[in-house]
Predict the structure.
Amino acid sequence: METVRTKKGFIIDMDGVIYHGNKLLPGVTDFVEWLQEKEKTFLFMTNSSGSTPKELQQKLHRMGMDVPEEHFYTSALATAKFLSSQNPGCSADVIGEAGLLNAFHDAGITTNRVNPEYVIVGEGSNYNYDTITQAIRLVLKGAKLIGTNPDLTGPGEDGLVPACRALLAPIEAATGRTAYYVGKPNPLMMRTGLKILGVHSAEAAIIGDRMDTDIIAGIESGLDTVLVLSGVTTLEGIEQYPYRPRLVLAGVGEIPENKQAK
């Protein structure tokens, strides 16, 4: 635990770590206050692409926590950054919500449902049979397929909900194409996060609730790894993977000095 406490920077997942739905998890307020008191640099990094950083900031504000907007980074921003560096001024057919559409607009990527260079899929309520069919036809015509993140499921108010990779599955199956996934554990997103923090990987820790995105991202990027059991992973679930987090906690509330690790 002392090793974690000495880190200068923290990359922190949100769903299952900071909140469930619209409910703040136990110990989160103490943890964020500890980060601020110790003058740690921290970034809330989420694979969810639906919300903008401003919307995430406002969500925490409604739960009683004030964190500046610059402390949030999403897979939508990472995807827009990737595309604008690979193909500036390109166009895309986008299946997603405001967070993804706004990120693309700000990066100068235009929406195109006729002959786009890319088909981009994120989580969204506008995902339906028609959007799937449209995406399949565009990919078969030559558009490149990209997913904002590789998550199969995510936490919802009443249990698990399908996430980006699950939504991409029928498009991949029908076209025979495999999507490129930008979000965690892609090193592109992790390197950007470290750059925003302004710290070296050895000086940072990643805190998450998923073995297949958060923990493997930390291991492959050289960060200290902390798994919390407040989200989708159980103690038994850890054993399914050929790698392990360095530290396992019930929740982030155990990290401040007045808490004990379990």
About this structure: The CA atoms of residues 60 and 66 lie 7 Å apart. The longest strand covers residues 41-46. The chain has ten helices and 15 strands. The chain has two domains: 2-47+184-254, 87-181.
